[in-house]
Structure prediction request, 216 residues.
Amino acid sequence: MPELVFFSGTMDCGKSTLALQIEHNRSARGLAGMIFTRNDRAGAGKLSSRLGLVTDAVEVADAQDLYVYVVDHLSQGGRIDYVIADEAQFLAPVQIDQLARVVDDLGVDVFAFGITTDFRSKLFPGSQRLVELADRVEVLQVEALCWCGARATHNARTVGGEMVVEGAQVVVGDVNQAAGEVGYEVLCRRHHRRRMTAATARAAALSPDVLPVSSS
Ligand SMILES: Nc1ncnc2c1ncn2[C@@H]1O[C@H](COP(=O)(O)OP(=O)(O)O)[C@@H](O)[C@H]1O
Ligand SMILES: Cc1cn([C@H]2C[C@H](O)[C@@H](COP(=O)(O)O)O2)c(=O)[nH]c1=O
Prediction:
């Protein structure tokens, strides 16, 4: 049975790497994939992983109908055995419905990859629709870690290392950004709730208030 599968996790947990591996394994066996992406850090029309691999992809536009795109490709004699959609959190809910239709009406597997929640721990609309429609939601096996060593489950947006909670839902960026820049850090829920990033935890540990009291 063809499936709509949502591979979800925090930022930096290996989603794009897995997407590239699925693409590699299937194309190595002569299967043809259609790869969609949106707002990849490597630029328009790219699917990239932090491991350095990158491949060309179709950059999805705002109002693009993904079902029609796939049907057009097939009717022009193209072949599509599976679809990969990376950065799927940035797709509109209606585009997720179109991907589900690709599975149901065309019998093509769709593998979608994305983060579930934003920096405020609210669902992205595209991810919400994926959770609602997917045949399976798969959490990636290689877990990203919070600075405390616990499994990271949440994405924090940072400015100069400090967590911020105001701003637009979509700001393309990366983890480990230079000081002063807008970046992201993955945290466990406990530290996301307390807005405690690696930098603020380090600063708190160095604060004189928490140094051991001298006996002299
Ligand atoms: N220098 C490195 N050596 C080994 N693994 C790395 C290195 N840099 C990144 N990674 C791996 O790549 C993962 C990020 O992969 P990526 O596909 O870009 O993540 P995602 O798409 O989920 O944001 C990290 O969690 C880590 O496992
Ligand atoms: C939490 C959060 C993330 N983003 C952006 C930042 C990155 O460009 C992508 C996630 O990419 P990754 O391959 O999973 O690392 O999403 C955003 O726009 N808004 C957010 O709240």
Summary: The CA atoms of residues 80 and 176 lie 37 Å apart. The domain at 1-142 is CATH 3.40.50.300 (Rossmann fold). The chain has a mean pLDDT of 95.
